[in-house]
């Protein structure tokens, strides 16, 4: 470790109050409970819980992180014969949680994964007709509801981690509530709904489900000692680095560390620094195995966090240090984690309905998130949480995270609701209403795309809109031959336009392929430590026309190589994710369309995402006049093109545009684009 003037954590941090601990009382042994299951706090209340839940239609369940809600409650219900006529579905905001929880519960039930206990997540369905306990992402259940609005396959739906308030959870809450009511009205098997979390606004949820009872689970399995920084930290990354190495030099190697950071680049950079520093530590220090975890990481790599650290140091063992985004914040148990380091920061979506811009911006977490982060320690034994912010700073955090539905573009959600037959989408029973401006902006956008018609105050799905809604990607993917895409998530609605107009440019195959490539998890590996090597091998694919054409070149080469794994490794291509796109029957032939057609089509489809070079070298978005910069990962980074369209916008130190295509500004004057946009374009030029 380089000269480090900071005192050890115990001196830099101030202890906060420990989590309360409830000693287990004498409990009756129930069938199906193994010793470790019986030790969880929820076990003490099993009988009472079941008694209440047997008669309740809806309930809110709140209990400490790690008390056993997610892994135990579904098993209790099943073991006590509740909901056995159908499936007990447990939703999770994230895929990695759904998969790891299903694996844990299957193990506890001594069952083969995919039989009694299974999961369904994007691209991966490990369930069968035998599956009674099914873990799934809330997005997947929402998808299922399109084909089965009453959710008749389910007898119980447990909405877990409801405090996260993702757009899918909030929409699902309304869908589940409506299915429950309609099933009762139609005398069908009732649907039991249980909303769970350790950190939620219980009154809000109880009120929403007709003032249903709130069940409190008392007790914490293992104590967690929280320490707050004594001083505000000006550089949370540096503070995290110092804390990691102080723990590393003081604690036994078996004590793993989990650090919460904000995004891929930050994580990869810190991982590199940690690996470099750990090489220069004294001989008697344990080895360090740094494991990154973020959404864009291939799924198999994500699962590495659950494995023990490989023995890199024969004599002193090696410590697992997990560097993660908020993907590890809720639900999951990572074995060995004794220490959590919480930077208090997160990258979250923000939407401005006036500009139509949706950006990812760095911000402080909420108190609920801080508590969830803490709860990732102390799961197998007592733990510690080092918060890189002071108690005063913590007091200033918002208590709950602002629901995503109030800070993102709503067009995909509205389209799904319309497809579900919701007659009045603008007054849909959302648990927290989105702003009228966002709703109006979403309707406007769908209307520009031809997905909806407006009559008076009513919004109706057009025949085209119905087709669009059949696909989870985005309204515009309504094309029969990509039916296999049904497992993808919604992409920004701006792709819609692109796909719709692609036949006019004779480049439907290219655009379909592009949208798929941009919608699956990253198809390319870009390890920062090998940046130069990656740049060298990618040179042969790079097009001066931009990232989209470059991506198509890589895809074509992948198909030509027959998806060969060695080829993928050499070219830093993620063979699994690329293979998924290829399996979708996107047989892109080599010279179907001229790249210029693809670019023209992208320009017209993504017209709201156009940006123009300014005399001072910066870029301004044409629609909302926002200052942006080209992200260094773009092949156009060095070229300073005059005008581009981009796929996404990320705000970190600056507002970066990513995945670009070079365009001619005049293409944006096309009659096909809305009059209002052309007028604005004209004004900006004059
Ligand atoms: N994969 C696992 N490996 C080891 N122990 C596990 C695993 N999953 C769960 N556990 C044990 O079971 C306990 C309960 O986990 P569970 O996910 O059911 O709690 P929870 O109350 O839902 O927590 P949270 O609110 O954090 O999701 C954990 O604290 C841990 O002791």
TrEMBL record:
Residues 1-21 have a biased composition (Pro residues). GO terms for cellular component: nucleolus. It catalyses: ATP + H2O = ADP + phosphate + H(+). One of its GO terms (molecular function) is RNA helicase activity. PROSITE patterns: HELICASE_ATP_BIND_1, HELICASE_CTER. Signal peptide: none annotated. InterPro entries: DEAD-box_helicase_OB_fold, DEAH_win-hel_dom, HA2_WH, Helicase-assoc_dom, Helicase_ATP-bd, Helicase_C-like, P-loop_NTPase. Residues 1-22 are annotated as: Disordered. Its EC number is 3.6.4.13. Belongs to the DEAD box helicase family. DEAH subfamily. This is RNA helicase. The lineage of its organism: Eukaryota, Metazoa, Chordata, Craniata, Vertebrata.
């Amino acid at each position: 470790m380089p000269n480090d003037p900071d005192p050890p954590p115990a001196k830099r941090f101030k202890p906060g109050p420990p989590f309360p601990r409830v000693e287990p009382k004498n409990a009756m042994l129930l069938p199906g409970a193994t010793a470790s299951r019986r030790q969880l706090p929820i076990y003490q209340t099993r009988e009472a819980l079941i008694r209440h839940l047997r008669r309740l239609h809806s309930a809110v369940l709140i209990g400490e992180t790690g008390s056993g809600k997610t892994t135990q409650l579904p098993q209790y219900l099943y073991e006590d014969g509740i909901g056995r006529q159908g499936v007990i579905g447990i939703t999770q905001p994230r895929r990695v949680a759904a998969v790891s929880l299903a694996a844990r519960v299957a193990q506890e039930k001594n069952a083969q994964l995919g039989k009694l206990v299974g999961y369904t997540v994007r691209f991966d369905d490990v369930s069968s007709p035998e599956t009674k306990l099914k873990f799934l992402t809330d997005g997947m259940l929402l998808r299922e509801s399109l084909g089965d609005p009453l959710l008749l396959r389910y007898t119980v739906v447990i909405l877990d981690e409801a405090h996260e308030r993702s757009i899918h959870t909030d929409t699902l809450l309304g869908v589940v509530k409506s299915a429950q009511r309609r099933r009762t009205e139609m005398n069908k098997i009732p649907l039991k709904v249980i909303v769970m979390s350790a950190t939620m606004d219980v009154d809000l949820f109880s009120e929403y489900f007709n003032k249903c009872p709130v069940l409190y689970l008392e007790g914490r399995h293992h104590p967690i000692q929280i320490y707050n920084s004594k001083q505000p930290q000006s550089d949370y990354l540096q503070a995290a680095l110092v804390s990691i190495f102080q723990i590393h030099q003081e604690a036994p190697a078996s004590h793993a560390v989990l650090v919460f950071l904000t995004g891929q680049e930050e994580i990869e950079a810190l991982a590199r620094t940690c690996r470099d520093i750990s090489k220069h530590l004294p001989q008697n220090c344990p080895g360090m195995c740094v494991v990154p975890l973020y959404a864009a990481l291939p799924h198999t790599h994500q699962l590495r966090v659950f494995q023990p650290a490989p023995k890199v140091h024969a004599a002193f063992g090696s410590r697992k240090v997990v560097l993660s985004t908020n993907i590890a914040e809720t639900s999951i148990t990572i074995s060995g984690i004794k220490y959590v380091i919480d930077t208090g920061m997160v990258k979250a979506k923000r939407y401005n309905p006036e500009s139509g811009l949706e950006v990812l911006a760095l911000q402080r977490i909420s108190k609920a998130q801080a508590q969830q982060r803490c709860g990732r320690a102390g799961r197998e034994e007592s733990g510690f949480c080092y918060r890189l912010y002071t108690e005063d700073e913590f007091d200033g955090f918002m208590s709950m995270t602002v629901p995503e539905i109030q800070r993102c573009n709503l067009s995909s959600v509205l389209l799904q609701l319309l497809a579900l037959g919701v007659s009045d989408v603008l007054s849909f029973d959302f648990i927290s209403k989105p702003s009228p401006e966002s709703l109006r902006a979403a309707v406007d956008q769908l209307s520009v795309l031809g997905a909806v018609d407006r009559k008076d105050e009513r919004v109706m799905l057009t025949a085209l809109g119905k087709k669009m809604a059949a696909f989870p990607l985005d309204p515009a993917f309504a094309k029969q031959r990509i039916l296999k895409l049904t497992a993808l998530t919604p992409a920004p609605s701006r792709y819609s336009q692109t796909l719709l107009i692609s036949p006019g440019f004779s480049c439907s195959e290219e655009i379909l392929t592009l949208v798929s490539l941009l919608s699956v998890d990253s198809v390319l590996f870009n390890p920062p430590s090998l940046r130069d090597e990656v740049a060298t091998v990618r040179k042969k694919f790079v097009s001066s026309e931009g990232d989209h054409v470059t991506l198509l070149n890589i895809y074509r080469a992948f198909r030509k190589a027959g998806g060969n794994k060695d080829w993928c490794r050499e070219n830093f291509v993620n063979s699994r994710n690329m293979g998924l796109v290829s399996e979708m029957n996107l047989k892109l032939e080599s010279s179907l369309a001229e790249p210029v057609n693809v670019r023209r089509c992208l320009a017209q489809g993504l017209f709201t995402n156009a940006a123009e070079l300014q005399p001072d070298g910066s870029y301004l978005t044409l629609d909302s006049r926002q200052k942006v910069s080209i992200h260094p990962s773009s092949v156009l980074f060095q070229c300073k093109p005059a005008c581009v369209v981009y796929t996404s916008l990320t705000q970190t130190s600056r507002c970066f545009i990513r995945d670009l295509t070079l365009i001619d500004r005049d293409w944006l004057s096309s009659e096909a684009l809305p009059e209002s946009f052309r007028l604005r374009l004209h004004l900006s030029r004059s």
